[in-house]
Fold this protein.
Amino acid sequence: MVYTRKDVSTLTRSERRRFVNALLELKRRGEYDEFVRTHIEYYTSDGETGLRAAHMTPSFLPWHRMLLLDLERALRRVDESVTVPYWDWTRNRTPTALPWTEDLLGGTGRRSDRQVMSGPFAYRNGKWTIKVGVTDTDYLTRDLGRARDPITLPRPDDVEAVLDDPVYDKAPWNSTSTKGFRNKLEGWGSGQGPTSWHTHNRVHRWVGGHMVGGASVNDPVFWMHHAFIDLLWTRWQRRHPGAHYLPAKPLARGDAQRGRVVARHEKMPPWDVTPNEVEDHSRIYRYA
């Protein structure tokens, strides 16, 4: 049966509560931390050797689609009514808007150490301790909007410019690709600092705290953010019918990226699936 992912701003109080409770139960069972471990393990950058499956690579979108599906299946084993809502950051753009409410994700971190003090995922409530990360911090951190050096979230016209590119991805298939939908959405730009953060990457930076880096899954907003990224991929597909994941075939011998990116019909670790097999989600879920 096809289920529906909703805009977080349309959730009822009951739907918010069920979503939060399911996340807390996965955390209690130790299942949630496995998702954090997976994301850290596959957070491979251009400068490292070996296959890039999750970031700075064409498989950025199908890889995160699979991670979302795995999390969603785990949530639905706890409560079959739960799906992952998406956060449309082009519309809900302030630190006091949804999803930053007391009954959902809580708010920003306090000034001294960025520790989240409100909402169900605050460390002081005893149900959300950071156990897997790249630092020793055991409490969730955020810095919504970067108070000391403010940045803004992407706007609707930024998204439109991304969706207009008719080609999925182009060489060199990494963070330096200047053309192609994938990197325009993933958001790696030239230069340093805020001017180099676009779209997906800019949202991670806007949230701050744990959302910056490989351990970003520790913040439950990760899933809402990536559900919206997944929705944008769906919108791109509808806008450009017939356009598909690229590269279509493994790269030629002598190409510096050969063996470093997943082609359309190659298996995408850690799953036994190809990007081609997850391009169409219509038999699993839809977006409201």
User: Anything to note?
Assistant: The chain has a mean pLDDT of 97. Strands lie at 3-5, 285-287. The chain has eight helices and two strands. The helical segments are 13-29, 32-41, 60-78, 156-163, 181-186, 199-207, 221-239, 275-278.
